[in-house]
Amino acid sequence: MKLNERQDRLLRRTFLDYQQTSGFLKQPLIVNRAEGLYYWDVEGKRYFDGIGGIFVAALGHRHPRVMEAVLRQMEKLTFSPPMHGTSDVALDLVERLGAVTPGDLNHVKSYSGGSESVEAALKFTRQYFKQTGRPGKYKFISRYFGYHGATAGAMAASGTGKRKTPFEPQMPGFLKVFPPTYYRDQFDSWEACNRFCAQTIEDVIVNEDPDTVAGVILEPISNTGGVITPTEEYFQIIRNACDRHNVVLIFDEIITGFGRTGSMFAAQTFGVTPDILCGGKALSSGVIPIGATMAREAMGDAFFGPPEEDLHFAHGHTFAGHPLACAAGIAVIDEIVEQGLDRKARELGDYLTSRLEGLKRYGVVREVRGRGLLRGVELVKDARTMEPFPDLGRALKRTALQNGLLIRVDPSWFAVAPALIARQEDIDEMCGLIEKSLTDALEEVRRPGK
């Protein structure tokens, strides 16, 4: 699209997430409408939303049930007094979330987004150990290439170097291990690689001294690492290690939660229940910012006692438990449950994978990863040497936008996460646009003089 003078001026007065404005100005995108699986820009061009905005629009854009729920709530209550009480709709969301989480993750608090949910989980864990006789447990173990949010604690837990280094020094007490993909070429099988990487987490716990380690925080499927998808055994090994050393296991399901991986949560997909689960993004299908932290009931009990003991969680946010956001969240959960959209994501995800696997005929795809309707494709120069192909990724980002397709493109991989309401013909449309964009990108990078 072409910018007018006003748009150009205003873009230079703000900033865009994780990209240089000067680069954005060469191929800008300003949207002003969305419906279902599509966006339209200010010039009227339509774009297939293959990434749910940013893993958010689980039910597509402007889903009628969610919109109606918010409008009904607007007629009754738009804000409740957080220092004096809560709202009935906030308690309804506590009930709904507790009904769909695995195990006894029924101690629930909603926030304004995923970063807040992770931040709360970290603080909750540290205070929990202080109040249960283990005040020395404060360290957290996470993974390189993982991303947990942009706030200070969540950023310290993240393993994305360039997103962190401008703000160093980071908060102390955060340790990193490598994900399975980092070592995969050193093992005969993916399963063996996962066993080794899971064991490194217990090795760090032991060598740091278990009495100092509070938690392990992981994304079940790591987006920023290239949709890294470990084995079920990987998570069971980590679960067992946490149990042995009294370490809290936290799943960051900001991206994987609410039907995305073929179950309501990836914890259910992989068959391992954490002690704390963080959700966000899809919980309102993008209508209103929302996140949630769900902990085991026994952990919540540690914050309940006589007033004189002052055992409350020393944490709060102005817009936590916002009535409109809670109404949206309830509508999303009810729609996923009633329509079986989590099961549908599992079935449609298999079809999506078969279409993406077809891209291997171009000789530049190493692997298709993911579960359900969250899939990633790793790009390589040569499928024999497996050398990364960042030039292709950069070109694909440009050609996808030109062809009216929004996907998440990193120089060495791309990810798709279409809405759970998608049909097989929608997957065909999206994959057709992906294939055209990939062939256009290949033509660009292979052009003489490039």
Give the SSE map.
Blueprint: H1 5-11, H2 21-24, E1 31-35, E2 38-41, E3 46-49, H3 52-55, H4 64-74, H5 88-100, E4 107-111, H6 114-131, E5 139-143, H7 152-157, H8 161-164, E6 174-177, H9 180-183, H10 190-208, E7 213-218, H11 232-244, E8 248-252, H12 266-270, E9 276-279, E10 291-295, H13 297-301, H14 323-339, H15 341-357, E11 365-371, E12 374-379, H16 390-402, E13 405-406, E14 408-410, E15 413-416, H17 424-445
Parallel strand pairs: 3-13, 5-6, 5-7, 7-8, 8-9
Antiparallel strand pairs: 1-2, 2-3, 4-10, 9-10, 11-12, 12-15, 14-15
Runs in which pLDDT lies below 50 for 5 or more consecutive residues are none
Main sheet characteristics: 7 strands, mixed
What CATH first level of the largest domain would be assigned? Alpha Beta
Using DSSP, what is the number of strands? 15
Helix % is 40-55%
CATH topology of the largest domain: Aspartate Aminotransferase, domain 2
| Average pLDDT over all residues | 96
Second-tier CATH architecture of the largest domain: 3-Layer(aba) Sandwich
Number of domains: 2
Neighbour order of strands in the largest sheet: 4-10-9-8-7-5-6
What structural class do you assign from the helix and strand content? alpha/beta
Radius of gyration: 22 Å
Q: What proportion strand?
A: 15-25%
Q: Which term fits the overall shape?
A: globular
CATH superfamily of the largest domain: Type I PLP-dependent aspartate aminotransferase-like (Major domain)
What is the terminal separation in angstroms?
25 Å
Total number of helices: 17
